[in-house]
Amino acid sequence: MEHNKVKNIHWFPGHMKKASNLISEKLKLVDFVIVLLDSRIPLSSYNPYLMEIIKDKKKVFLLSKKDLSDENESKKWENYLTKNNDLAMVVDLKNQKIVNDILSLINVYIDEKKEKYLKKGIKNISIRAMVVGIPNVGKSTFINLMAKKSIAIAKNEPGVTKAIRWIKVNKNFEIMDTPGILFPQFKDKKSAINLALLGTIKEDILPLDEIFEYLINFIKKYYLIDFNSRYKYEFKVSDDNNFILETIGRKRGFLNKDNDVDITKTIKVILNEFRNGIIGRFTIERVEDANI
Ligand SMILES: Nc1nc2c(ncn2[C@@H]2O[C@H](COP(=O)(O)OP(=O)(O)OP(=O)(O)O)[C@@H](O)[C@H]2O)c(=O)[nH]1
Ligand SMILES: [Mg+2]
């Protein structure tokens, strides 16, 4: 694919500016920031522009979709993201039990602040956070999860643009109930493909066959065993990608009226199964490739 195509999917700088101004304004009201990243693509779901805005704040990185990513790789990411004294944890936000683990993690910041204020003779402190991330990383799921645990919804408070509401999770900890959303930045073509692959950006922004080719090459490299066990066939690394598609399409009965395999449908089904963890748990981006 030529380079122009990727350029076309850069978001308008104006849009990015507006969103980041909003986040900057709200940032003044919080002690730390909860950054949601997709644990399958921690690099592509990491927005450098956003990181620049929040660079002076403490951070908690929550790597979402633990249930869909490779456990070994997620552990490595967790370690990597704590390198600047930030906190990091891989989480399955669909599992309610995770709430207490998240609260224990955040306690580190609560204790730090308590200690600081106790020196000034202030006993009762509360700590406030805002949630940020690119679309589809789980911001709303996270906020809803924490809200269920909340003892009361805090009162409205005048914010910069409109009233900001706080979710009081416990006596020390409140979360802003509206997340900061920033669209991803396409650092390179790879990150655009990764985001399309996982459905964060519309897949039709790139040719479907190109996304599929990228996926199948990735699977051949790391996860061919899971793939073969899902599609009940002994595919080999040397197999042609078209052969793989034809075989799966025929086995599944995805045929058009001439009895040919419906390639588009076959690709869409495989993509969908990949995204939803039906083929297996995959991490696309590795710590070894980290540049953040
Ligand atoms: N399997 C799994 N799915 C998750 C997890 N977290 C979120 N999801 C799903 O991911 C999708 C997106 O989650 P949202 O909470 O809507 O994401 P968001 O960041 O609020 O997205 P925007 O509002 O578009 O910015 C939903 O279908 C969630 O159910 C997780 O840890 N595991
Ligand atoms: Mg949302």
CATH architecture annotation of the largest domain: 3-Layer(aba) Sandwich
Q: Termini distance?
A: 26 Å
Which oligomeric state applies? single chain
- What ligands does this structure carry? guanosine-5'-triphosphate, magnesium ion
The portion of residues assigned to helices is 40-55%
Rg: 22 Å
Strand-and-helix sequence, N→C? HHEHEHEHEHEEEEHHHHH
Main beta-sheet annotation: 8 strands, mixed
Tell me the count of domains: 2
% residues in beta strands:
5-15%
- Indicate the CATH topology of the largest domain: Rossmann fold
Description of the structure:
Strands 1, 2, 3, 4, 5, 6, 7 and 8 form an 8-stranded mixed sheet that branches. The protein has 2 domains: 3-181, Rossmann fold (3-Layer(aba) Sandwich), CATH 3.40.50.300; 207-289, Conserved Hypothetical Protein Ylqf, Chain: A, domain 2, CATH 1.10.1580. The protein is elongated, with a radius of gyration of 22 Å. Helix content is 43%, strand content 13%. By secondary structure, the protein is α/β, with parallel strands linked by helices. The chain has 11 helices and 8 strands. Bound molecules: guanosine-5'-triphosphate and magnesium ion. Magnesium ion is lined by residues 139-140.
